[in-house]
Design goal:
The structure holds three protein chains of three kinds. Chain A is mostly beta strands. Chain A has one helix spanning 283-293; strands at 2-8, 13-15, 26-30, 33-34, 40-41, 44-47, 56-62, 68-77, 84-88, 95-101, 110-118, 121-123, 126-127, 134-138, 141-142, 148-156, 159-167, 179-186, 189-198, 211-219, 226-230, 235-238, 247-255, 268-270. The radius of gyration of chain A is 34 Å and the shape is elongated. In chain B, helix 1 (7-41) packs antiparallel against helix 3 (103-129) and helix 2 runs antiparallel to helix 4. At the B-C interface, helix 2 and helix 4 of B face strand 23 and strand 24 of C.
């Protein structure tokens, strides 16, 4: 007789040797290793205050014939704590997804069950293949004031727990970050940078459900971000950039009317256009060039010779 | 099928739609402010779920994206006419219950009522543009039948339900008008009301 | 005696003049004929009669009574008993409830029953014990005096919780303190219980009770939530605070709120959260109206009398529950309701000047759902004249040393002498006041001549008026007018 036996961390476990009498002569092994007789009470195996390391295969053999009388796989673990559940719509108005995880491991298999109720209607949450702990729901109705109630129940052999989220349709709308963010200098404009991006591809109908954007940028040498909110369009020209300073730029998106801001997009870097160093037309200028051409070093087109700090490696 | 759109009609519709979107957006912002003030003033729990209230048009709609333009306008118009009557009743109850105490809420309620009336007129304009008949104003002149006499708490909850639905309707109207303003793929001109997806 | 003898003779009276006697005997002789004879000790002849029951009704003796019971069964068992008054128990008849009426708004039960006094020959003190049964019993004692007539007694009991919350059962019993009767006295049996069903017995009776009450600040309140049998109740809140619930029945839970404080303008919500919905009530907690202070009345035009007063502490009630004022004039019997806004600071009420009536005996009545009060004022209106502000002050005549002024006063002052005061100021002389007494007229203009002025001098004038006889208060100053005297003739 062999099966899996689940026990809580810290529990005291007693294993009988199948149908053998208490006073029968037996031998117990753990993962193939004999267990010291001091752990036995007659033919019963006593494990006190078990911990995770005591998970394993336990076998009991009849004393003389070494006949296997009992075998079990002991799995020491914990009942599930309250799971963490998050629901979000990044493709409004198509639907929303819910994802979950357990804040602490249980060390034994858990099963999750999710129920989504809208008013009195039970909605189907279609499990996503990847990632495992996620499913998505299609909006059957739009513009509803009836709240959605999502209940996630987690069960394992040692116990059960659940958590519930109640939310309005519009409260969980959070687009994915804008994509293809690009920034480039504007020729002959030492204080401008042209930034462009695209709606997140997951956003299905930007025309009926337009997004607005939030741009933040700062020179690398400063910590303070500058912000600008843009109610439409997917580009913006920064006009107050510090000349010659490298900038880090990010964009976030939000539905024009509801929900919350997306995470920040991937950061892009750019440095505003800078003046080309001018060739000297006077006598002195020619002499200097002649002496310069003989040196081995050539400055990158956008860097001023006199600006010591501006020499940048590739 | 609506007559093929003359450019001027299309431009006029587009203009009406964009003005309507701004009006609905402003109305929604004011309704949300009013809702916050109402919840606080009435001592209600903002997260309380309120059962559907009889006579209050529900903004919730299934297969919204499949509606025709005419459906959108007619449903919007019916809703805002109902809200006009409901808000007028709320204003009356407000005066009855509070007299001149907290006149601020009364003024905010009256302001939203004005916007709802203006938006209803705007929708009628859009329907007229499409030579669509305007649903009988007369039958709805006295609005929905007076609801049964509610207890004060039920009145408070109904008010909450009315303002919540109105906020959602304003949002839906913005989306509906954007649909109407969308240039149809073929002609690049905003579609007649019937053809819009 | 032998087994078959009559024994344990007991007599009980319900009305002090008849008593019911019962006895035991052998079970075999239950329906056999019995001769029952009795004689009192004042030598009246013995009275006998036959009975098959072991109970007879005979008069209550003044002193004692000798009873002989002969049962004519197989063996002639005869037994004699001597009954003294002290052996007779006096147990009043079980009272009968005539009506039990609920008044839900005030959570009051009104109980009516007959005291059955006519069965007694003389007045007696009666004690009534009334039991009100809900989740727990409440017992109350009520005293009355029997007067040899059947009097319908009426008694009100105000429940500490709304009657809708759960069913109320009432029953009553009586004890009569017949001091002259020496026998043991006891309580009657309880009457059958009468019931006022609670909403928790009605299908669809859900809700929070009391519904939308108005109560005084400091009250202790009980609210209950009646719900369906299978509905789980999550909590009950009063305002923003959750309260511990007491279960009254399977469909009714209650909370107790002590020392309620004044509610805000829209009332305090009492919310019962159920698994699938909300029930609620709105309670308005306020103050009864204070006695109006500084009640004062005057007229500015002999058409309308304006009364003003200080309302005292705000009631905290608004809209249809606001404090309302009415002005009643006793002499004429005329009553006027006053339009007073609960948020404005000044409280004013207009009452028409009545023809040929000088003296007004006003009662300012004040009431709101919590209470009422009043103030009174007797006033001779001719002694309370404060004319309206003089209007259209103009200069009508002018020479080097005098100027004539004219002004208009809105009001009917015929028969009233006016005292008007003209303020004269100029750049190089002190402000002077010049009084002039003028016979009043109806909606009229008035003139006054300012003499002894300096030539070629700019003067500013303004005027105010009051009643010449019985001065009360000046009107406000009129708007000013400016005029320069002409130059002196050469």
């Amino acid at each position: 007789e062999s099966h899996i036996q689940y026990e809580r961390v810290g529990a005291d476990v007693t294993m009988k040797c199948g149908s053998m009498d208490w006073d029968a002569a037996v031998t117990w092994t753990a993962n193939g290793t004999d267990i010291n007789e001091s752990r036995l009470n007659g033919s019963y195996l006593i494990l006190k205050n078990v911990d995770l390391s005591q998970s394993g295969q336990y076998s009991c053999y009849e004393g003389s014939s070494w006949h296997l009388k009992y075998q079990t796989y002991l799995r020491v673990g914990t009942p599930p704590t309250e799971p963490v559940l998050m629901c979000r719509s990044n493709n409004y108005p198509k639907g929303f997804y819910c994802s979950w995880h357990l804040p602490t491991p249980t060390y034994i298999p858990n099963s999750f069950n999710i129920s989504v109720i809208h008013g009195t209607k039970d909605m189907v949450c279609e499990k996503d293949a990847i990632p495992k702990n996620r499913c998505h729901i299609r909006y059957l109705q739009l513009f509803s004031t009836v709240k959605y109630k999502v209940t996630l129940t987690v069960t394992n052999a040692l116990g059960k727990n659940f958590t519930t989220l109640t939310f309005d349709e519009f409260a969980i709308v959070k687009p994915d970050p804008p994509e293809s963010v690009m920034a480039k200098p504007v020729p002959n404009n030492p204080r401008r940078l042209e930034v462009s991006w695209q709606n997140p591809s997951s956003w299905p109908d930007p025309e009926s459900f337009p997004l607005k954007f939030f741009l933040r940028y700062r020179p690398l040498i400063l910590d303070q971000w500058q912000h600008v909110e843009l109610s439409d369009g997917t580009s913006h020209t920064i006009t107050d950039a510090y000349a010659g300073k490298e900038y880090i730029i990010q964009v976030a998106a939000k539905d024009n009317d509801i929900g919350t801001w997306s995470d920040w997009s991937v950061a892009v870097h750019a440095t505003p256009w800078t003046e080309e160093p001018k060739h000297l037309t006077t006598e002195a200028q020619i002499t200097e060039t002649t002496s310069a051409s003989t040196s081995s070093f050539m400055a990158p087109p956008t860097t001023k010779i006199c600006d010591k700090g501006a020499v940048v490696g590739s | 099928m609506a007559a093929a759109d003359s450019p001027s009609a299309a431009l006029r519709r587009r203009d009406l739609c964009s003005r309507g979107i701004r009006l609905a957006g402003k109305m929604r912002a004011d309704v949300i402010d009013l809702l916050d003030a109402y919840v606080e003033q009435q001592g209600l729990d903002a997260s309380a779920s309120v059962a559907a209230v009889e006579g209050v048009p529900l903004a919730a709609v299934e297969r919204w994206d499949e509606q025709t333009g005419t459906q959108r306008l007619l449903e919007n118009l019916a809703a805002y006419r109902a809200f006009r009557a409901l808000l007028a009743q709320m204003l009356e109850e407000q005066r009855e219950q509070l007299g001149e105490a907290d006149a601020g809420l009364g003024r905010a309620l009256a302001a939203v009522l004005l916007q709802v009336s203006a938006f209803a007129y705007h929708l009628e304009e859009l329907l007229r543009l499409e030579s669509r008949g305007i649903p009988g104003e007369e039958e709805e002149e006295d609005g929905p039948p007076p609801p049964p006499r509610l207890s004060l708490f039920e009145q408070k909850l109904r008010g909450l339900g009315v303002l919540r639905e109105l906020a959602q309707w304003a949002l839906r109207s913005v989306r509906d008008l954007r649909q109407l303003a969308k240039p149809s793929p073929a002609t690049g001109v905003a579609p007649g009301l019937v053809e819009s997806p | 005696g032998s087994l078959g003898d009559p024994q344990n003779l007991k007599c009980v009276t319900h009305n002090l003049h008849k008593m019911l006697c019962t006895w035991d005997g052998s079970s075999r002789g239950r329906h056999t004929q019995t001769d029952f004879c009795y004689t009192t000790n004042d030598l009246t002849p013995q009275v006998c009669f036959k009975t098959k029951e072991r109970r007879v009704e005979i008069p209550v003796p003044e002193g004692s009574i000798t009873v002989t019971i002969k049962s004519s069964g197989t063996a002639f068992a005869t037994k004699e008993f001597v009954i003294h008054q002290k052996d007779i128990s006096f147990v009043p008849a079980t009272p009968h409830i005539l009506s039990l009426m609920p008044d839900f708004p005030t959570s009051t039960l009104n109980l009516k029953w007959s005291d059955n006094g006519s069965v007694f020959r003389y007045g007696l003190d009666a004690l009534w014990q009334i039991q009100i049964l809900r989740k727990e019993a409440t017992e109350v004692t009520y005293y009355s005096k029997l007067t040899h007539e059947d009097v319908i007694l009426s008694w009100n009991w105000t429940s500490d919780m709304p009657l809708e919350c759960t069913s109320h059962y009432v029953k009553i019993r009586c004890y009569i303190n017949a001091t002259q009767f020496v026998g043991p006295k006891d309580w009657s049996d309880w009457s059958p219980a009468e019931m006022i069903p609670g909403k928790d017995t009605e299908p669809g009776g859900s809700g929070v009770f009391p519904l939308d009450p108005v109560v005084a600040v400091g009250s202790d309140l009980t609210f209950c939530c009646v719900h369906e049998e299978d509905q789980h109740i999550t909590n009950m809140t009063y305002g923003s605070k959750s309260y511990t619930m007491t279960q009254l029945s399977s469909r009714s839970h209650a909370i107790r709120v002590l020392n309620a404080s004044v509610s805000n303008t829209s009332g305090t919500n009492v919310v019962c959260r159920l698994e699938d919905g909300l029930e609620g009530s709105v309670v308005f907690v306020g103050y009864a109206p204070d006695i109006p202070q500084n009640l004062s009345c005057e007229t500015s035009n002999f058409l309308i009398i304006k009364c003003t007063w200080k309302p005292g502490r705000p009631s905290g009630l608004y809209g249809e529950r606001r404090t309302k004022y009415s002005l009643f004039e006793r002499t004429s019997g005329k009553n006027v309701s006053c339009e007073v806004s609960e948020v404005s600071r000044d409280h004013v009420c207009d009452f028409p000047v009545l023809r040929d009536q000088k003296t007004y005996d006003f009662i300012l009545g004040v009431s709101n759902p919590i209470g009422q009060s009043q103030s009174s004022l007797m006033v001779d209106i001719t002694r309370r004249v404060r004319p309206k502000t003089p209007e259209k002050l103009t200069v009508t005549g002018n020479n080097s040393t005098s100027i004539q002024l004219r002004w208009f006063i809105n009001g009917s002052f015929a028969g009233t002498r006016l005292l008007c005061q003209i303020e004269i100021s100029s750049s190089h002389s002190e402000r002077k006041l010049h009084n002039v007494s003028i016979p009043g007229r109806k909606f009229s203009t008035y003139t006054a001549q300012m003499n002894a002025l300096h030539p070629d001098t700019k003067y500013q004038f303004r005027v105010r008026c009051s009643a010449a006889d019985h001065f009360w208060r000046w009107s406000d100053w009129s708007r000013g007018v400016e005029q320069t005297t002409s130059e002196a003739p050469p």
